[in-house]
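seq as requested:
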Amino acid sequence: MVEVSGLAVGSAAALGAGIAMGLSALAAAWSQSSIGAAAMGAVAERPEIEKNVLIYLALPEILAILGFIVAFFLTGAVK
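struct tokens:
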């Protein structure tokens, strides 16, 4: 296996995949908690916007999905 500055390429790809997945999940959770708190306050005042709030709550999950895709591509590059 090829080594780059003391770290094998496969190990570096696995480390990068873990970091990509972990940070994207952390960012999604943090943004969802902020959006969720504000959304529940808005729905309490105006119940008719409940459908819009569900869309806003689903959007941060795209961050986690993209992190998973990056991690999948990184681990797929390891042979």
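Helices lie at 9-45, 50-58, 61-76.
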